[in-house]
Amino acid sequence: MPSQALFVRTVEHYLAPIKAFLDDSGVTEVMINRFDEIYIEKDGKIVKTDARFTDPQAYEAAINNILQFTGRSLSDDQPLIDSRLPDGSRVHVAKAPCARNGTSVAIRKFSQMVLDIDWLIELGTLTTQARDFLRLAVNAEQNMLVAGGTSSGKTSLLNALSSFIPDDQRIVVIEDSAELQLQKNHLISLEAQQPDRYGRGEVTIRELFKSSLRLRPDRIIIGEVRGGEALDMIQAMTSGHGGSMGTLHANSPADTLNRLETMALMSEIELPLFALRSQIASAVDMVVHMSRHIGGRRLVTQISEVNPVDDAGNYTLRDLFVLKPVDKDNPDHQMQLAWTGERSALGNRADRLASQHQDLLTDPIKPILGMD
Question: Which of 19, 13, 29 is closest to 61 using CA atoms?
Answer without folding.
Answer: 13
